[in-house]
Amino acid sequence: MSRSKAQSQRVVHGDADKQAPKLLILHPDAEEYRAAIHSAFPTLEIVANSHPLSQHALDADIILTSRISVQVIESVQNLKWIQSTNSGVEFLLPAREHLRRTVVTNARGIHREVMADYVLGMVTALHWDFRGLLRQQTARDWRMKFVGPLSGKTIGIVGLGAVGLEIAKRAKSAGMTVVGMRRGGAQTADPVDRYVARHQLGELLSESDFVVLVVPATEETRKLIGVVELNSMRRSAYLINVSRGTVVDESALIDALCTGKIAGAALDVFETEPLPASSKLWDMPNIFITPHIAGNPTEYTRRALEIFLENLKRYLAGQELTNVVDLARGY
Questions:
Q1: Residue 273 is a catalytic residue
Q2: 182 catalytic residue (yes or no)
Q3: What DSSP letter does each residue of 13-80 carry, written as one string?
Q4: Which of 12, 99, 165, 311 is the most exposed place for a label (fewest CB within 10 A)?
Q5: Residue 280 — φ and ψ, nearest 5°?
Q6: If the chain, 331 residues long, is cut into consecutive pieces of 10 residues, what is the mean pLDDT of each piece?
Q7: Model pTM greater than 0.85?
């Protein structure tokens, strides 16, 4: 049995069945979550957006949150389960020593389709140079151009979780060659033409016309793409980052874009968010900038609630939870 599964069973088979658990919701949309959860589980004790260090928080069994401080985690005395409404749980990593007896679950999967839509949209926009075409339109400049099909291009996907595999599926439907990198091994049904290991990242970068970053924010992935990696990319290649800003050395990327080491980029995440007005990235003609929206599907709260309510039902029944996070890995 894996560590995550063993931890999950240990939590749900603890004293959750001896008394009704207490749920603390720390979230900007806490009241919306509270109303829906109360409707489905009317006997559950729910506290919404109480001061996180009040007595209401200190004796909570379950926390539903988008972000929580290490101080709160260290103060809660009976915490058995944290459900994150995000996919990334990097905000919990500094407190993982205090969470050894706490199961953590996330919202993995709800971003898959919309993030794949975003990436394939950006692939098309970069390939056709839509920014250049819009400048021509503004200038009333009728200028012909010729563009090859995407089916002749290679896309390298760094990170093949649920989102990465959905991107791979969309890319294959466009006829593209897909090279992928992930920690685990290949799966028979995966829409990937070739896998590379972590030490072969340079090969993926040098072969790809589009490099897509879909990895979690961990110490292992911090500045995964820096000077060396950008120099490994083709001068005609594009970088698309929908993971976290910490995955890319931003100063190295700015230099690569300014000097033509790569052709362009589509960036949804940045080292500092919001992206400062003083950033050189704003004025570059060969990139698309979006405000960390690639993973924002409509009805986000409803989708996150579906995951939480299913897990709450499992928790109360003493069953294993879904979307369990391995904090040792960070995802």
A1: yes
A2: no
A3: TSGGGTS--EEEEESTTHHHHHHHHHHH-TTSEEEES--TTSHHHHT-SEEEES---HHHHHH-SS--
A4: 99
A5: -65, -20
A6: 40 52 93 96 90 74 94 89 96 94 96 97 98 97 97 97 96 97 76 95 98 96 98 98 98 98 98 98 97 96 97 97 95 92
A7: yes
The residue annotated as part of the active site, out of 220, 273, 299, 310, is 273
Active-site residue, selected from the candidate residues 34, 229, 244, 320: 244
Beta strands (DSSP E) in the chain are 22-26, 45-48, 62-65, 81-84, 103-105, 154-158, 177-181, 194-196, 210-213, 238-241, 264-267, 287-289
In the residue annotation, 97 being an active-site residue is answered as no
Q: How many residues does the chain have?
A: 331
How many CB atoms are located within 10 Å of the residue 330 CB?
19
Bridge partners of residue 287, in order along the sequence: 265
Domains annotated for the chain, with CATH where assigned, are: 3-109+298-317 (3.40.50.720), 112-289 (3.40.50.720)
